[in-house]
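Input protein
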Amino acid sequence: MSGGDSPRVLLLTRCSPFQVPIFEGINEGGGRVEAVVEYSSTGLSRPALWVRRTKRVFGDKWPIPAALRLSAAGEAEDPVVSGLIDKLEVDLVVVSRWDLLPLSFLGRFPRGVLNTHISLLPELRGKHPIPGALLAGMRRTGVTIHFLDAGIDTGAPLLQEQIPILEGDGRRDLEMRAAQRIRPMYSEVIRAMKAGRSPEGGMRSTNLPCHFSWKRQTGSEPPESLLLDWRAPSWFIARVAEHRDCHIRFRERDYPIRSVVDRGERPAGSGDRPGRVIAGAGSRVTVVTGEGAVDLELARGAGGGEPAARPEPGGIIPSGRWPRWQEFTAWVERLPASVKLRELFLFSMDFSMCGAFL
């Protein structure tokens, strides 16, 4: 890594909890943030709105010159971005939550283009690494600062740090922990660039590659509700329902689901057809899955009453079609026990209780 003067940085970002720690880390390490371009799908048609918002986010953390260089753009090759690069002699670009960048852009900068990804790459590359870590039941994830290339989070890592995942954590908990790591990480990366050395820090990934996004694995993104795919393992269906709105379709009506519990192994004699109802009472239904069974609690009807209709034991509930769940669940099963917070099957139900549902 070549040394020399302070990196002259262009920050490409969109509103996120990581904007301020990235900026602070660059400054703390001795870099110079020359300008910020925030992603805007509306381009320059309404720049004043998000420029004011960005100034509120950063507040007095901006040096005076950069305060005049807040811009909006819908793509990296926008004339606004090109003009800033040429005018300010930018030699390093730092990206946070930006779209894929073309090779013609990536090759313009002597010090390269860096990205911040919330996982220990190559684990959980892709658009939704935090939900991926939660679905996998991991006891840790991390932050990776890496060079961008033409792939999706496939560039060479510069620095990685772990962050713990605790029982009951959600997306915001992990975002807050990641934000606390990002400032010192960028400070170290910039100091290392100035000194012509590699950043000091350990690489702690399992090196088991996985590409996760909601759309890739389940076919849609939040806030769209998911139709459950009974072919998937019970543990995966239950964890998806922790983080996404889900529903079942019965008699041509959609019924929202309040909760899903992994029931572990199927009871003897229940059959192996995914979607088969094996027990039910009131708003509760027990359903066979590709591996195991789940307890569903359906949302109450208008006025808090029972659902208008409930699948009866022996019936079949139609299944959704999640396109790549097998890819993800196979990856989870390959993870070493040392990184798993939860086992795949939490417990097995005593199915002698099923009669109480009938």
Remarks:
- The longest strand covers residues 253-262.
